[in-house]
Design brief:
Elements: H1 4-22, H2 29-42, H3 67-79, H4 83-108, H5 113-116, H6 120-127, H7 130-137, H8 141-160, H9 164-185, H10 195-203, H11 208-232, H12 234-254, H13 263-286, H14 297-314, H15 332-348, H16 351-359, H17 361-381, H18 390-402, E1 408-411, H19 419-429, E2 432-434, E3 441-445, E4 456-458, E5 466-471
Parallel strand pairs: 1-2, 1-3
Antiparallel strand pairs: 3-5, 4-5
Helix pairs in contact: 1-6, 1-7, 1-17, 2-3, 2-19, 4-8, 6-15, 8-9, 9-11, 10-11, 10-14, 11-12, 13-15, 14-15, 18-19
């Protein structure tokens, strides 16, 4: 009960950093593209194994495994096509991720009620990581994969704290969630396989031979599920082969995104600076307020475990030249937990901390509720804010009012790399495109200064970034 204001405060920080941006009608390019693919599936464009981005394209979209698209398509099917459907989904992933982070914290410290109550602290450190709140402002696939990864780690820890058949059951369960992680984003979802060996390194409460055996159980579970899919569902063979071999291998070897493969470590350090600074400040504030004897050996082991677990999810990115900051997102809750252990321990042993929140309970509760209310008010005020993409979204919605859904239009070749614009065309208008064949409608960017082919006439003068032309011959394709 004493920690209630701090729990409310932690979620106030989470909501303040995410919701006002999440509610806006704009999205990062990758997220907009993935959302449009899922929406297509909900409308019958594409199949479970052969997804579609451009409805007019005869080829399948096979950039990633299909699970994320299946899940979000289910939400679109049940809740409709409103832009708030994917926003609700992101909010749900945010809440589930925070819940799993707290579950792991409480499970790890289940025998220590004092520090177990400080589950709000790793939440604050986690959401203060810039790429973390940025990822949840958008509908990044890493948000969904992170849920499966944290679930796999949660069940791995549970397995280590069980014996006999229960232990085997939890390792199999963790293997199932590792499969789900890989079925969402591919190879990065495998990193929980390292958790058992990391557990052995940190605690040495079992033999290395047993640690390897437990890992083999997880590997076998993943292998068994994929083998079953490939054997019983023929379409899965072509789909998964295209992703795991054709796309992934070519992406790793031929399309680097950084010049220095150590870049990911610089980025990781930069992202972790806020939680490191908050953790260090907490240590400075409370190190001289500890009452009684504090033996920190066990906390050092716990910290080592979570930091190594976080590195297991981030360091392998240095093996390739394909590196982006948001790839770190699934590993960030583990770093947050690791950096929270010593500060939480000192706070739990501090009489001043305990007395402050006991004597001023209602005052701190009122302040926390006020902050929570403020986060909701700011979110409400941002509902109609489209940010920097206001002009683009205006033109997309105007296009949707003129052109019927399921229409294929002619796009100017200069728009070939305008992935965000194409994604919005699919997501909001269900419109496909062709760059080489004349269609009934022709969309040209104003900056192209291109005269449309003979026989086209203008449609709506309210466009801000584009000219939309229509063929005078309505019988045209």
């Amino acid at each position: 009960m004493r920690h209630l204001p701090l729990w409310i405060f932690s979620y106030s920080v989470i909501f303040f950093l995410v919701l006002p941006w999440l509610i806006r009608d704009s999205m990062f390019m990758d997220a907009a593209l993935d959302t449009s693919v899922a929406h297509n599936l909900s409308k019958g464009t594409g199949t479970l194994w052969f997804l579609k981005f451009n409805p007019a394209d005869h080829g399948a979209y096979q950039e990633k495994p299909p699970l994320f698209y299946w899940i979000q398509a289910f939400f679109f099917t049940i809740l409709g096509s409103s832009l708030y459907v994917e926003r609700f989904y992101v909010l749900l992933t945010l809440l589930i991720t925070s819940w799993l982070t707290v579950k792991i914290w409480k499970l790890f410290f289940s025998g220590d009620d004092k520090i177990s109550a400080f589950g709000w602290f790793p939440l604050i450190l986690w959401i203060l990581i810039p790429v973390c709140w940025w990822s949840f402002r958008n509908n990044m696939i890493e948000n969904t994969m992170g849920i499966f990864i944290l679930s796999a780690i949660l069940f791995t820890i549970k397995a280590h704290r069980r014996t006999g058949i229960n232990r085997i059951f939890y390792f199999i369960l963790s293997g199932i969630f590792i499969f789900l992680a890989t079925f969402t984003k591919g190879l990065p979802g495998l990193f929980p396989l390292a958790i058992t060996c990391i557990y052995w390194i940190a605690f040495r409460n079992t033999s290395f031979r047993k640690a390897l055996l437990f890992t083999v159980i997880q590997v076998f579970t993943v292998f068994f599920i994929y083998t079953s899919l490939l054997f019983f569902i023929p379409d899965s063979r072509e789909s998964l082969y295209a992703h795991f071999f054709n796309r992934t291998i070519s992406r790793i070897t031929e399309a680097p995104t950084v010049d220095n493969q150590l870049w990911i470590f610089y980025r990781l350090f930069g992202e972790l600076l806020p939680p490191i600074l908050v953790s260090a400040l907490s240590l400075i504030l409370f190190k001289n307020q500890v009452t009684g004897v504090y033996q920190g050996k066990e906390d050092l082991k716990n910290t080592l475990f979570f930091i190594l677990a976080g590195l297991a999810g981030s360091a392998p990115l240095a093996l390739t030249g394909v590196q982006k900051g948001f790839y770190l997102v699934p590993s960030l809750p583990l770093f947050a937990i690791g950096f929270s252990i010593f500060p939480a321990r000192l706070m739990s042993l501090s009489d001043r901390f305990r007395s402050f929140f006991t004597k001023r309970f209602y005052m701190t509760l009122s302040i926390s509720l006020l902050l929570l209310s403020a986060s909701f008010v700011i979110t409400f005020l941002n509902i109609s804010n489209k940010g920097r993409e206001d002009d683009l979204l205006h033109d997309i919605h105007t296009t949707g009012k003129i052109i019927p859904a399921s229409t294929t239009i002619h796009l100017h070749p200069s728009l070939g790399s305008s992935w965000t614009m194409q994604s919005y065309l699919v997501r909001y208008c269900q419109i496909g495109w062709d760059f080489s064949t004349e269609k009934k409608y022709y969309l040209i960017p104003k900056e192209a200064d291109t005269i449309p082919p003979e026989g086209y006439e203008g449609t709506d003068n309210s466009f801000r970034l584009f000219h939309l032309y229509k063929k005078r011959d309505t019988a045209a394709e």
